[in-house]
Design goal:
alpha+beta; 5-stranded mixed barrel; about 25% helix; flat
């Protein structure tokens, strides 16, 4: 039997690892269900969803180089998303408007001075560090 993508098979959980479960397939073949393909929800521990020797229905999602990739979640019904609000119809009442945010209060002289001082210190530190790098490079490259 040729395993093609999309084929649905019955299998049995052979062994469970932290990253997935190995499934025994017909004709003595084995495939892997990765932990991300077990359920439509986040799976932190695969052992909460599968047990060894459990019969499962799987779908082939890949078969390359002797490796068979399987999925259980693709056979499950997808969970319904929460309904989004319907788009506005003509003639419908408008959405309530948010109150505009007031402009920021004018800065005091002390705040302006502090900002200028921070900017000056930052520029000064940058200049000094570049001068030090240049001078360190010059002293290391001199011949002794």
């Amino acid at each position: 039997m040729e395993l093609t993508v999309g084929t649905v098979l019955d299998g049995k959980v052979k062994s469970i690892t932290n990253f997935g479960a190995f499934i025994s397939l017909p004709e003595n073949k084995t495939g892997l269900v990765h932990i991300s393909e077990v359920a439509n929800t986040y799976v932190s521990d695969i052992r909460q969803h599968l047990t060894e020797n459990q019969e499962v229905k799987v779908m082939v999602i890949g078969a390359e180089g002797g490796k068979v990739n399987l999925s259980i979640k693709r056979l499950e019904a997808k969970p319904q998303r929460e309904a989004r609000p319907a788009p506005r119809q003509e003639g419908a009442s408008p959405r309530p408007q948010r109150a505009p945010t007031p402009p920021p209060a004018p800065k005091t002289a002390d705040q302006l001075f502090e900002e200028k001082l921070k900017q000056f210190m930052s520029e000064s530190d940058n200049k000094i560090s570049s001068i030090r790098q240049y001078s360190d490079h010059r002293t290391r490259s001199r011949r002794r």
